Amino acid sequence: MLTVSRSIVLPEAELVERFLRADGPGGQHVNRTESAVELRFDVQSSPSLPDEVRERLLARNDRRLTSEGVLVIQARRFRDQARNRDDARERLVEIIRGVLVPPKKRIATKPSRAAKERRLVGKQQRGKIKQTRSRDWSRE
Q1: How many domains does the chain have?
Q2: Is 19 domain-assigned?
């Protein structure tokens, strides 16, 4: 069981783990052990996720999400398998927690009259500064 929040708990049956050989430093030992972890979670058909959370998770523009709706997380940060496994699970929980709260609706606002006036005055002052930099080429 992987606890995401009070209301969301992912059973082990929904998590598919695959162990592979990690690249990077480690000497001869890295060539023999499968310490990297690939964690797959089927977002599309998971009964544990509420519909609104599933929709927000699938709507994310995330390269780890396949076209079939499977979230693939690879963990190879550590040298031992257990720590990589924990790391992959923690990252999955963080991704799901990131979409638990719905985003706030943006309220369109207009600048006030005073703000518009300040902007125009600033532009006029800047234009005057630039005019003083130029030389009058007609007199030469």
Answers
A1: 1
A2: yes
DSSP SS3 for 140: coil
φ, ψ of residue 22 to 5 degrees: the values are -85, 150
DSSP conformational letter for 30: H
Is 37 within 8 Å of 88 (Cβ atoms)? yes
Tell me the pLDDT tens digit for each residue of 37-66. 999 999 998 999 999 999 999 998 889 999
DSSP string, 36-99: EEEEEEESTT-TTS-HHHHHHHHHS--TTB-TTSEEEEEE-SSSSHHHHHHHHHHHHHHHHHHT
- Neighbour count for residue 8 (Cβ, 10 Å): 17
Please name the amino acid found at residue 140: E
Q: What is the span of the domain harbouring residue 44?
A: 2-98
